[in-house]
Design brief:
By secondary structure, the protein is α+β, with helices and mostly antiparallel strands. It contains ten helices and eleven strands.
Length: 299
């Protein structure tokens, strides 16, 4: 029995996001290129002999009951394996919340990993991914991490070669976006073919290790919905491109925007513009990071 585990739960961006259609049950068929980035939440798991799951977090507005995805992840494995001991989950959030970076899903994936390890349940990565999809469509990817093609509702994953490294500037405006309402307002079949991103061209760029081909073809169909209601997203993209980004895109259902830079100096200057200069009115949270290509959780 392990008494204490410290874990990192990394956020993701989408280099490409296409929606192919909607299923009867409301889920959407997607085709997404997922990429882990170096921004992470910290999670401590502490074993306690008394039964129960206790969640503590630094953000007062997040639930600490069964509505928190970390609670759901622990509950799922502890029920299945009839674990009668308890666990305290300490969650420190750094990934922007409700922002299109799969923060909650990544936290859940880290807790699946941690509970499996703490109680020596013996599940392998694939078995953790199979359980993860019961918590959320992005959870299996967050168990896997790295660069991957995500299809189905997000659970059919094909690992891809790592994308050539570059600087990733992340800016989240102060607005909040509900993933559910963005998908509800997307009418993918009414869009023109040219409004769909060319996922195959991005895949080709990844296989050719051509960061410029990847950057030129970044595309997210959900921008058609979220930029309509939040034009600040377009302003951030334009500003990043003016500052030297080789590509810029909204991640997930938004509102977070990322820009890719091949020049570390241009990236640093752009970071400062968004942090302290005239970009600061557009973005509440700003980070300068990289792609994170270590596979599943080793910590
Ligand atoms: P995605 O990219 O998968 O759409 P997201 O970035 O839009 O994810 P999250 O930050 O994962 O969204 O969380 C969205 C909502 O889920 C929040 O409003 C919050 O109330 C709830 N939630 C539950 N557990 C967590 C958690 N561990 N971290 C963040 N949010 C959580």
């Amino acid at each position: 029995m392990i008494k204490h585990l410290s874990l990192k739960a990394y956020g993701k961006i989408n280099l490409g996001l296409d929606v192919l259609g909607r299923r009867e049950n409301g889920y959407h068929d997607v085709r997404m290129i997922m990429q882990t980035v170096g921004i992470f939440d910290r999670i401590d798991l502490l074993h306690k002999p008394a039964p129960g799951i206790q969640v503590e977090t630094n953000l007062h507005y997040l639930p600490t009951n069964e509505n928190n995805l970390v609670y759901k992840a622990a509950r799922l494995l502890m029920d299945e394996f009839h674990i009668t001991d308890g666990v305290t989950i300490r969650l420190r959030k750094f990934i922007p919340v409700a922002a299109g970076m799969a923060g909650g899903s990544s936290d859940a994936a880290a807790v699946l990993f941690g509970i499996n390890k703490m109680f020596r349940l013996g599940l392998d990565t694939r078995e953790l991914m199979e359980r993860g999809v019961k918590i959320g469509a992005d959870v299996p990817y967050c168990v896997l991490r790295g660069t991957a093609l995500s299809e189905g509702i997000g659970e059919i994953l094909t690992p891809l070669p790592p994308v050539p490294q570059c600087q990733v500037l992340i800016a989240k405006p102060s607005v909040s976006v509900s993933t559910r309402s963005v998908y509800e307002n997307l009418h993918a079949n009414e869009l023109k073919p040219e409004q769909h991103p060319d996922i195959d061209r991005i895949l080709e760029g990844i296989h050719r290790q051509d960061i410029y081909q990847i950057a030129e073809n970044l595309g997210n169909i959900l921008e058609t919905v979220t930029i309509g209601t939040h034009p600040v997203i377009q302003e951030i993209k334009d500003q990043m491109l003016n500052l030297g980004a080789i590509g810029a895109l909204m991640s997930g259902s938004g509102p977070t925007v990322f820009g890719l830079f091949t020049s570390p100096r241009a990236a640093q200057e752009a970071y400062e513009v968004f942090r302290y200069g005239d970009g600061a009115r557009l973005a509440r949270q700003v980070y300068l990071t990289n792609f994170f290509n270590q596979k599943e959780n080793k910590s």
